[in-house]
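Morning. Coffee machine broken again, so started the prediction first thing and wrote up yesterday's gels while waiting. Chain of 159 residues, entered below exactly as on the submission form.
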Amino acid sequence: MLLNERIYRTYTDETQVLTERSDLNSVTGATATGTGFSVTPMFFETTTDKLDRDLISEIFGPVTVIVRYTEADLRGAVARTVDVLPSSLTATLHSAADENALVQELTALVSEHAGRIVFDGFPPGWRCRGPKPTADRGRRRTPCTPRSARPPSAGSCAR
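Came back before lunch.
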């Protein structure tokens, strides 16, 4: 359910434009039912070589774009993606414990486009156990403590 008619019309107009693109795969969720400004959730799928600025404009509502890439082309895919995206206040990198070298490379790629890098969902310098703080809806606190060692690539990021 969207907030008002203007947002509803924007959602339906913008998702219709994306649905008509032959270079995208589109998937819709369950058909919206009910009164008011109900809409059907959608996602669109593309690859990094087909990603363009028209795909990343903001649409308020249940819609997302999934960009596929091959593992062999991860660095090239990230470079192409951040070149298409507008600069942002933050960028988030999720990684495994044994990917420090990759984290350094990807941080160098995205740091020119983002004011702050967030690692694994938390700002640099913090380690949290348990569910993410937003996942528990305030019923309990997730214990967060300063990390003894920040990711090696976090040195250039603001705290």
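The beta strands are 25-28, 42-47, 63-68, 88-93, 114-119, 126-128, 144-146. Going to sketch it on the whiteboard this afternoon.
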